[in-house]
Amino acid sequence: MPLQLGDTVPDFTAETTEGTVRFHEFIGDGWCILFSHPADYTPVCTTELGTVAKLKDEFDKRGVKPIGVSVDPLDSHKGWVNDINETQNTTVNYPIIADSDRTVAEAFDMIHPNIDDKATVRSVFVIGPDKAIKLTLTYPASTGRNFDEILRVIDSLQLTATRKLATPANWKPGDDCIIVPGVTNEEAYEMFPGYNAVKPYLRYTPDPTK
Ligand code: BEZ
User: Fold this and answer.
1) Percent of the chain scored above 90 by pLDDT?
2) Does residue 45 have an active-site annotation?
3) Nearest to 40 by CA among 3, 8, 81, 2
4) Rounded to the nearest whole angstrom, what is the distance from the C-alpha of residue 46 to the centroid of ligand 1?
5) Fold of 13-145
6) What's the pTM value of the predicted model, to 2 decimals?
7) According to DSSP H, which parts of 12-68 are helical?
8) DSSP label of 29
């Protein structure tokens, strides 16, 4: 069965562009985003990997370690990283797993044979400090991912992980949050004084992180 939200991610040891990584050790006590690429030396992937490198400060601020994976060998990754740095005007500053035996791709169900029986799709796994999956996304090879959206989702995941709050459609940091249905009105008065009940089930409160 494919990995689902809440599942503990498989542990593995892999060669990467930054040396050997033991995955659970790599995650440590922080957050992680594992994202796959169909193959090395492909155009969309080149832009995605460059984009993540440029956003590294944003991932750092949130305590999130990025790690890419592609089913090509380490030598190929190293040559490709030079191209990414040159063409995207950046320096790749996080590891890319060399998954030529597809251990990681198979463990995370990143190969979808009805699309391609060799290359991975564009999978994203956001993993929490408890090593559990908090979010998955699957894009086809032809569509590059929006990493600003992934940062926005991480902001929501981190805000809601420790509070009885959810975030509404198109929420962004600073916007009002929603009190989750399981909270009684009495509890809501205690936790979120002055909250705004538009309907009994639709209760807004300011973003507590701002
Ligand atoms: C790409 O990464 O550019 C790509 C890979 C496979 C198919 C289409 C695009």
Assistant:
1) 98
2) yes
3) 81
4) 9
5) Glutaredoxin (3.40.30)
6) 0.96
7) 23-27, 43-54, 56-61
8) T
